[in-house]
Amino acid sequence: MAAIGLMPTFASATAVGNDNSVGSATSFQRPNIIFIMCDDMGYGDLGCYGQQRIETPNLDRMAQQGMRFTQAYAGSPVSAPSRASFMTGQHTGHTHVRGNREYWRSALRPNAFGSNSDYILIGQEPYLNTHKIIPELMKQAGYTTGMFGKWAGGYYNMEYPNVYKLDANGNTDTSQSQVSSSASLPNVRGVDCYYGYICQFQAHTYYPNFLNRYDPEKYGDKHVVVDTLKQNILHKDVASGHKDYENREQYASDLIHRYALDWIDRQTANQPFMGIFTYTLPHAELWQPNDSLVAKYIDRFQGQDSPYGGNFGSWYYRNYSRHAQFAAMVSRLDAQVGEIFDKLKEKGLDENTLVIFTSDNGPHEEGGADPAWFNHDGMLKGTKRSTHEGGIRVPFIAKGPGVPAGSVNDHLLAFYDIMPTLMDYAGLDGAQYSKMASSEQQCYDGISFNATLTGNDSIQQKHDFLYWEFHETNMMALRMGDWKLVVKSGIPSLYNLATDIHEDHDLASQHPDIVTKMVDIICKEHTDSPLFKITLPK
Known about the structure:
Number of strands: 19
Shape: globular
Radius of gyration: 22 Å
Helix content: 10-25%
Structural class: alpha/beta
Distance between the termini: 38 Å
CATH class of the largest domain: Alpha Beta
Strand content: 15-25%
């Protein structure tokens, strides 16, 4: 458990001011925040979480110098709803986006980029405009905001980049997607600077035809624009399966990371900032620059590796050493995290910046990935798309002012807790965006874990339960203390995580009273969604 009694200390201040309302002036310098959410990294993929085959020295050092959480949970077992849970402070029984609903499938245009076909309409189901998300709240509080990587909270139409159709409630009118962009894009949702993939489907390839940008400060952008990757489009795209794809050189992971570093370089000590770095590593495809990092793992795994033949319809390119590719991607991400810390130190911002690292869900098995080989101890059951522990329990590390160094904490938290936590940490009023202030008009499910984060476990409020649902696999889950109820197609199974972390022994028949109590909670927490149907337990 974390040490007791530490309080955050910020530049020019020793305590949080009395006026904690959003947007209020205070007498101290608010802390900067960088939230790094990587893509499809499993709980055991880092050295500090027990990984033995992949080197992650920077993240291991971050854990040694900060707090490592052992029971942190994503918002969902897949990308878009997990990110929505983070952004909105809601669990997936309440938040609007509960799945990877796409808006690109009918909009393929031939020869859109050089000789390459691509989708003119891209993106996912939009966040509700009538519910504030984290960058809006931080911007309202006076923070400069940047986001780099996946957006996954709305769609973009290249033919109508600055046209937003709204319904009667003031939200994006998705029926008008063919003639408009979503009003839930970074430029209209509190983000001052953005670079990355508006569409998470396009993030399946690391050598795309284009990325998206919104940067009024540097380029005078009035709305989200297309940044064509001019060297890439000289060569065949990944969907072709043609070997010429290997001649593409503009690697999106590096481009997004460099843009994020450049944005940090623009920040100053007298203006608080929040960066949301939704990096795409180590998501498939398992393809990257053929450099010394890849060569190291090819050599290390010699005789233990195997090729992957490719799935070009899903934009997963073939590779010849799938284990080496995945390991190199994790180590490449680790190096990027190290460069973020180096840049903060170079700018003199490291002493007043909270950095959090996590993953959007559990490990994937796509594009040739083999999580069982890397996590050979098999501690957690399930992978991405499962509400068993392996699909939703994620690495979560925090380092910054007030965070006890070298601490390991077993506090139960989920992504919907992050909104009130960051607000409290910044000296704002997180309670008004937490479960305590939730109403039918504005629903919130999170509880701030700022007390735990800053070493005050003795006063930390705890959840009675944590909740998940995912329509695509028709699964739900509820954690209540050590009890875990997993529902598959309406059938509940009960596990005691204290003695059965792998969820092997269904105790439902032995504890019908506990099952009844947990089923009642699920039925109360779930609100029906016409877009994301699920079978409730009986």
